[in-house]
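S.,

Sequence below, as promised.
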Amino acid sequence: MTVGQASIAGGERPHTPQTPKTQAAPAALAAFAQDPLGFVETAFPWGEGELRSHTGPDDWQRDVLGDITDAMRVRKPNGRDPIRYAIASGHGVGKSALVSWLILWAVSTSADAKGVVTANTERQLRTKTWVEVGKWHRLMTGRAVMKLGATALTAADKDLQNTWRVDMVPWNERATEAFAGLHNHGKRIALFFDEASAIDDRIWETAEGALTDEDTEILWFVCGNPTRNKGRFKECFHRLRHRWICKQVDSRAARLTNKDQIAGWIADYGEDSDFVRVRVRGVFPQKGPNQFIATALVEAAVQRQPLPDGSADRLAPTVIGVDVARYGDDQSVILVRKGRAVLEISRFRNKDTWEVAQHTAEKMAQWRPDAVFVDGGGVGGGVVDSLRRMHCPAIEVLFGSKALRDTEYANRRAEMWGEMRKWLQTGSLPDDRELADDLTGPEYSFVRENVIQLERKADMKARGLASPDTGDALALTFAQPVRSRASNERDGILAANTEFEVWND
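The prediction came back faster than expected:
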């Protein structure tokens, strides 16, 4: 046993009360306050007893612990920036052990540390995450300083248990208070999300409030299998990756995984299947199980460059789609598309129907579109009426009306989204996060055999997603096939001056 191991072996003298009572981690533990890697290497009896076949952390675990050690030692003018660390991994790599080590390190090496640990479900939290914490607490040399209970790991000294603790807290999207008041100014805060992909975005948003204390050590550690290709966990690796230290762990590179089973999965499903992406490679799936438009399809369209001026798209129609807000937190969107490219997106909040109509008329004068399609349901009918009074011809589209191909789609909205999905195979999208989120958000179901029903906006909101107003505006540009003026002129067709030339298949 090394000197470091001997110094924190179980059986050290209990904390001795003083007047006034001080709250300090034992010196041997406090020595690792900025060094989780050193703590893990020293605090567990590697090579002995239950760990006789283990020489220490796996290489990838050692890398993560080293990253956090390095981040702990970087100071800013006002103290430390929060350390945000996200791990997406395949199955069986040992992430639960890593979470347990970090929980024990965070709370036992820093006086008055506070923390919260949660998971995707209460069952996962109680029967897996917390059980794993209990296992490693039992093996930890120096465990006497902390007491493990059914729902909390606290200081062993009962007088310190209210201020020095980490709590196991099942989450509830309707009651987020446990994640709202986690403040510990000047000391340490630690948040742990296990199987984070399935934790509701509202819990993530509430937890952000714990990151506001200045001059406070803050660690937010999230990990899990990347089972969902949207939500806050995925955003750690994409839109918010500049704020997170991210690591993806392939099960094939982990020491303890069953390599024969993994090889069988790859042979059965394929290297790039979503099954292997999630369970082996630690990569987010290309498409959710009920997701109507795959994330990969949208990402490819964002990377695709629109055709240059003078190409065949010159003869493509210019079409405007107008989605009109119905509720206070929604927005009206005017979107301009020409052929394979989205040219412009304009968004407006808190505008009445007359104002939306005026903005639409201005875009019509600017772009001289070949067709304008307006969502006429609810208050949208007022925009259509106003445009017509201004002699700006607009075509009213009712999302809930019967689909033109009613053997494939339950209504017009599902049909337009279906046409938009086909267009995305060759279309070009701007790098607009809101549009991308809108397109990949809705799920679908079948109302009868092979008839697609798109998820309602109200149901999306119930899942914590925003109304896909920009996605609906783009979908409206596919309400009907449109022939451009340029095509008419080329083919010698005379177009009426007062109405759009809209032709049906």
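The radius of gyration is 29 Å.

Coffee later?
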